[in-house]
Specification:
- By secondary structure, the chain is of the alpha+beta class.
- The protein folds into two domains: 225 residues, Spore Coat Polysaccharide Biosynthesis Protein SpsA, Chain A, CATH 3.90.550; 75 residues, Sandwich (Immunoglobulin-like), CATH 2.60.40.
- It contains nine helices and 22 strands.
- The strands form seven sheets. It has a six-stranded mixed beta sheet, with helices on both faces. It has a four-stranded antiparallel beta sheet with strand order 19-18-21-22, with no helix packed on it.
- α3 packs antiparallel against α5.
- The longest helix is centred in the first third of the chain and has 14 residues.
- It is globular and about 75 Å long.
- The mean pLDDT is 91.
Length: 375
């Protein structure tokens, strides 16, 4: 029996489809995950076999959160408050559900393929959660964050300075900023998560202006601050590519750059040798979540000609590089082929075994060793 790895995520009602798209997308590449979907102030009966629904309530959050296009409506203070629930949910998963070696995922993520590269880091967890390295050393928001101005270095202009000063944390402990959309944790992290949750709970009684001053990136500000407080400096490598439109997803798969390319602010397309390390797309909200999931489902098409014993495979993505195509009968591999896949061209495969004789035909397509599609 496959040991299932727990994945925790949560959503308000307007975010449900995004959370479900994340789950459905991961299920395209995995059969070793079990999901705990926390639903905030609404009940949900799962229709996906490996999903457990966990109801959580917070009276201070009104059910009026909406999207503006494909982005959060950050003019609504409830958006901020909903984000601060992350620590409470992680703490509940430890104290009540008793989960261990768990992956937490924000619901504005979708995988680029199989994410099993993440599993190796469970053994590196000590007594604090592991989050990803960030893109930039300093974050800038609300007209502040850059300490290099006025001809020198001004630590008081660092975005996290107000929260660190408020809680007597030495600013000299600060390291480059990290992102908290992916978090690995276990039972050894429980004390850290309790303090993380305590720090987040303070924000519920603040005005929107106060939140933007002390917690400019919400719970991500608080978790960075606590990690610096205790000088907990181990991190996951950056494993996500920010996207702002569906074209960024296409470029991730079609690009073959020798060096990383910034195509717009915060959107970096990885170089070809690093592509498989980026296992998530980040920033996928609203309709873009639906569009990206549909893109994943339809990257490849195949048809069988049983008379000629041929399988025809085509793609709407111009990979222009070698992909590995493996054919399985249930769990038994019967055929493997490495070939270049170009957009719109139909490639045929014929195996010594008749396709009519397969008990369960499964096709898996790998890009540089990473599963990116399964039929």
């Amino acid at each position: 029996m496959i040991e299932k790895i727990p994945v925790v995520l949560y959503c308000t009602e307007n975010y449900l489809e995004g959370s479900l798209n994340l789950i459905r997308s991961l299920n395209l590449y995995h059969n070793d995950l079990t999901f705990y979907l926390y639903t905030v102030n609404f009940l949900y009966k799962p229709t996906i076999e490996n999903v457990n629904s966990v109801f959580i309530t917070e009276e201070q959050i009104d059910s009026n959160i909406q999207f503006k296009g494909t982005r959060n409506d950050i003019g609504n203070t409830n958006v901020y408050k909903a984000i601060f629930l992350k620590s409470r949910i992680i703490l509940h998963s430890l104290e009540t559900l008793k989960l261990n070696n768990t992956i937490y995922l924000d619901s504005d993520l979708l995988p680029t393929g199989n994410i099993s590269n993440l599993y190796q880091y469970f053994d590196k967890i000590t007594h604090y959660p592991l989050i990803q390295q960030g893109i930039y050393e300093y974050q800038i928001a609300f007209g502040r964050g850059n300490p290099f101005h006025n001809g020198g270095f001004d630590e008081t202009n660092i975005l996290e300075y107000p929260l660190m000063k408020k809680h007597f944390i030495n600013i000299q402990n600060r390291k480059p900023y990290s992102v908290a959309s992916v978090m690995l944790y276990n039972q050894n992290c429980i004390q850290f998560i309790r303090e993380y949750n305590w720090l987040n709970n303070l924000a519920f009684d603040m005005t929107r202006d106060e939140i933007e001053y002390f917690y400019p990136f919400c719970d991500e500000t608080s978790v960075n601050t606590l990690l610096w407080k205790y000088q907990y400096n181990d991190r996951l490598p950056l494993m996500q590519m920010n996207i702002s439109k569906i074209e960024n997803v296409l470029e991730y798969f079609e690009s073959n750059y020798n060096e990383e390319l910034e195509v717009e602010p915060f959107v970096f397309v990885p170089k070809n040798s690093e592509r498989k390390r980026f296992i998530f797309f980040h920033g996928i909200k609203g309709k873009m979540s639906d569009d990206t999931f549909m893109f994943q489902q339809n990257m490849f098409k195949y048809r069988l000609d049983n008379n000629e014993n041929k399988m025809y495979i085509s793609s709407n993505v111009n990979f222009s590089r070698d992909l590995e195509i493996n054919i399985f009968d249930n769990d038994q591999k019967t055929y493997s082929l490495i070939t270049t896949i170009n957009k719109g061209i139909e490639y045929w495969i014929s195996t010594s075994k008749q396709f009519l004789d397969y008990k369960k035909l499964i096709v898996k397509i790998y890009d540089d060793g990473k599963l990116i599609f399964k039929i």
